[in-house]
């Protein structure tokens, strides 16, 4: 069990390390570089299935990383960069899509499902509480 | 009653989701650019670096914009069909991405050149403004300069018939598309 846990921890430690970005790519300023690394993890590569542009080796991901660096160099905020990319590639490229009529269900679904579950739970409870108590007791 | 209907209802819902979800092509992402004006661009052409192809080149007539590169194997597969469409009189503009100029010129000499002009975009900068994810991709542009349709993957006669012709018939004024009959539209 302990070995398993060790393996799991080791795997988790490495799981985040699979990046296509090489060391030279980025900014000299550590704060800016940190922001860059965080931002490219939030942008989905439009060509590859479920990889961020930080992880992907696809040419389009490299181009998008370069575009993110250019925009950051020009002083654009994270939000402006995300708008720039979603104007061209759709909400699809944002791992946390913003609220809009098309993405509304993505955000609303968890709450709706919890409400549905609560309703079913309440119905079961209501049905049970209507049963006479002595029916549940052994004779 | 509910005891029997509820599992059936859940089964139907899951079934519908799987039926729709599993038949979708995950690579075909709806472009937000469809219905919008063509992005502003200006690029030197592949054949002549002194000449430019730009947003204005597309204005005033129905055109295709085709994304290609010599590194793209599928582009070679769709190329003969593009040549055929160009012969029928349809103006096709190319967007050559992440390519080498010499290789691109050799490609056009070998396979034929269906393009009125191809923009040369070695860094894929204009491609980002067009929301290009790879090649081949083909855009149908209306005479008013709006993007009518975007197709990802090689263009085939079947896809042309199914997706492009209906839009051409809808969006062609009598003067816009003299080629319509020749490309199968009438």
CATH H level, superfamily name of chain B: Glutaredoxin
Helix count of chain A, per DSSP? 5
Distance between the termini of chain B: 57 Å
Strand content of chain A: under 5%
CATH C-level category of the largest domain in chain A: Mainly Alpha
Main β sheet profile of chain B: 5 strands, mixed
What is the CATH architecture descriptor of the largest domain in chain A? Orthogonal Bundle
The 3D shape of chain B can be described as: elongated
CATH architecture type of chain B: 3-Layer(aba) Sandwich
Order of helices and strands of chain A: HHHHH
List keywords for this structure.
heterodimer, A: 139 residues, mainly alpha, Helicase, Ruva Protein, domain 3, B: 186 residues, alpha/beta, Glutaredoxin, 5-stranded mixed beta sheet, two-stranded antiparallel sheet, 6 helices, 19% strand
Verbal overview:
The complex is a heterodimer of chains A (139) and B (186). Chain A is mainly alpha-helical and 139 residues long. Chain A folds into two domains: 2-98, Cytochrome C biogenesis protein (Helicase, Ruva Protein, domain 3); 99-139. Chain A contains five helices and no strands. The longest helix of chain A is centred in the last third of the chain and has 27 residues, at 104-130. With 186 residues, chain B is an alpha/beta fold. Helix content of chain B is 38%, strand content 19%. Chain B is built from six helices and seven strands, in the order H-E-E-H-E-H-E-H-E-H-E-E-H. Chain B has helices at residues 2-22, 55-58, 73-87, 101-111, 125-129, 157-171; strands at 42-44, 52-54, 63-68, 92-97, 115-121, 137-141, 147-152. In chain B, strands 5-4-3-6-7 form a five-stranded mixed β-sheet. A two-stranded antiparallel ribbon of chain B has the order 1-2. In chain B, strand 3, helix 3 (73-87) and strand 4 form a beta-alpha-beta unit. The interface between A and B is medium-sized, with 17 and 20 residues.
């Amino acid at each position: 069990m302990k070995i398993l846990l060790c393996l799991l921890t080791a795997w988790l430690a490495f799981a985040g390390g699979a990046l296509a970005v090489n060391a030279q790519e980025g900014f000299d300023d550590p704060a800016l570089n940190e922001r860059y690394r965080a931002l490219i993890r939030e942008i989905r590569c439009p060509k590859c299935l479920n990889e961020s542009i930080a992880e992907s080796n696809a040419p389009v991901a490299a181009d998008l990383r370069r575009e993110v660096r250019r925009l950051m160099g020009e002083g654009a905020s994270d939000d402006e960069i995300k708008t720039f990319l979603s104007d061209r590639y759709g909400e699809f490229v944002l791992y946390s899509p913003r609220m809009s009529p098309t993405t509304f269900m993505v955000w609303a679904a968890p709450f709706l499902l919890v409400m549905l579950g609560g309703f079913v739970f309440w119905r079961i409870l209501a049905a049970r509480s209507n049963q006479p108590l002595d029916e549940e007791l052994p004779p | 009653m509910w005891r029997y209907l509820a599992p059936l209802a859940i089964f139907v819902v899951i079934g519908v989701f799987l039926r729709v979800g599993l038949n979708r092509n995950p690579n075909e992402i709806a472009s937000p650019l469809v219905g919008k004006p063509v992005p502003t661009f200006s690029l030197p052409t592949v054949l002549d670096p002194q000449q430019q192809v730009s947003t204005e080149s597309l204005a005033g007539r129905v055109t295709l914009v085709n994304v290609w590169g010599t590194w793209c194997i599928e582009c070679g597969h769709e190329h003969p069909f593009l040549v055929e469409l160009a012969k029928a009189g349809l103006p096709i503009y190319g967007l050559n991405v992440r390519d080498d100029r010499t290789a691109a010129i050799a490609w056009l000499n070998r396979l034929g050149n269906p393009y009125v002009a191809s923009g040369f975009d070695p860094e894929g900068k204009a491609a980002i403004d067009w929301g290009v994810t790879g090649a081949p991709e083909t855009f149908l542009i209306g005479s008013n300069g709006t993007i009518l349709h975007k197709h990802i993957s090689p263009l085939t006669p079947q896809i042309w018939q199914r997706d492009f012709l209906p839009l051409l018939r809808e969006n062609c004024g009598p003067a816009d598309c003299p080629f319509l009959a020749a490309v199968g539209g009438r």
